[in-house]
Amino acid sequence: MKNLAGMMKQAQQMQDKMKTLQDELMEAEVTGSSGGGMVEITMSGKHETKRVKIDPSLIVADDAEVLEDLIAAAFNDAKTKVETMMQEKMSELTGGLQLPPGMSLPF
Fold first, then answer.
1. Which of 43, 77, 103, 105 could bond 32 through an S-S bridge, CB–CB 3.0 to 4.6 Å?
2. Is it true that domain 27-93 has CATH number 3.20.20.70?
3. What is the pTM of this model?
4. Contact 40/21 with Cβ under 8 angstroms?
5. Percentage, residues of the chain above pLDDT 90
6. Which H, E and C letters describe 22-72, residue by residue?
7. DSSP label at 100?
8. Share of the chain above pLDDT 70, in %
9. Taking the chain, what is the end-to-end CA distance rounded to the nearest angstrom?
10. Cα(28)–Cα(39) distance, rounded to whole angstroms?
11. What average pLDDT does this structure show over 8-34?
12. pLDDT band at 35 (very low <50, low <70, confident <90, very high)
């Protein structure tokens, strides 16, 4: 029974750390960019878009396709950075222990 109590305590500690990590991710922001920084998208750690910055020189009525492509690329760059940040934080939390296949965080 003593081992069970120890395991329960460890599980509670891990749950507390996960809550702290989720709070940190909610507050964290990363910026993805494209076009040499002419388009920037800032996202939270929860994949919420916070800001979009577009260099005014890109706003040309006849060339919307280029701007659309740059926005999509900046969004994907920001998304990749959020995912990398989450993996790094999880690795710190779990001491490098990998999650089972198909399991992702936050749960």
1. 77
2. no
3. 0.68
4. no
5. 36
6. HHHHHHCEEEEEEHHHCEEEEEECCCCEEEEEECHHHCCHHHHHHHHHHHH
7. P
8. 85
9. 29
10. 20
11. 85
12. very high
Nearest partner of 67 among 89, 38, 29, 42, judged by Cα: 38
Burial of 70 (0-12, 13-18, 19+ CB in 10 A): buried
Q: How far apart are CA 16 and CA 14, in angstroms?
A: 5
Q: Is-contact 17 94, C-beta < 8 A?
A: no
DSSP 99: P
Contact 77, 33 (CB under 8 A): yes
Residue 97 pLDDT: 60
> Is residue 29 a contact partner of residue 81, using CB atoms and an 8 Å limit?
no
Arithmetic mean of pLDDT, 34-39: 94
